Amino acid sequence: MDKAEGLMSLFSNLSYVYDDNMPKKQGGLNVDNYIYLNPNQTKTELTSTVSEEIGHYLTSAGDIIAQDTNEKRKQERKARDVGATLVVTADDILKCFDNGCETTQDCVDFLNVTSKTFNDAIEYYRRKYGGILTENNDILIFNADGTISVHKRKLNS
């Protein structure tokens, strides 16, 4: 099961509809308990779209398609933040580090998410926390330049 399918099963109360009539530039649309998806996306794009539309389901109210007010822009930002953190967790970032990823692109490829989704997650963690202490006492620091510092707990021999 890929990440998009995993998210869909996690949020099985929603109905997912692949709609051939969606505009080419629109990946998805959340209306009530339906998430309409453009079928002309890569698996990576689909994962990011599904996560963002679930973010809208969890956080948005009303029609925010026209980003013409600060409130609508705030709702869009919150939905993207929630969606991005559904598919890029602190544990995922540690897995990137543990698997030798050295660049953002390495992480994007390893996690099978879009660069935008990965960067949205990193920016959210930086804004919200600055740094994260994990369950294993590893430390992630999200720097203003978009880089991440990882400090792994040393095991006693």
Q: What does this entry look like structurally?
A:
The chain is an alpha+beta fold and 157 residues long. 47% of the residues lie in helices and 15% in strands. The chain contains 6 helices and 6 strands, in the order H-E-E-E-H-H-H-H-H-E-E-E. The protein has helices at 3-10, 43-59, 70-87, 90-98, 104-111, 115-128, and strands at residues 15-18, 28-31, 34-37, 131-133, 139-142, 148-151. The longest helix is centred in the middle third of the chain and has 18 residues, at 70-87. The chain is globular, with a radius of gyration of 17 Å. The chain starts with a helix and ends in a 6-residue tail after the last strand.
String of helices and strands: HEEEHHHHHEEE
Secondary structure: number of strands = 6
| SS summary, helix count | 6
How much helicity do the residues have? 40-55%
What sort of overall outline do the alpha carbons produce when their principal axes are compared? globular
Model regions low in confidence, pLDDT < 50 over at least 5 residues = none
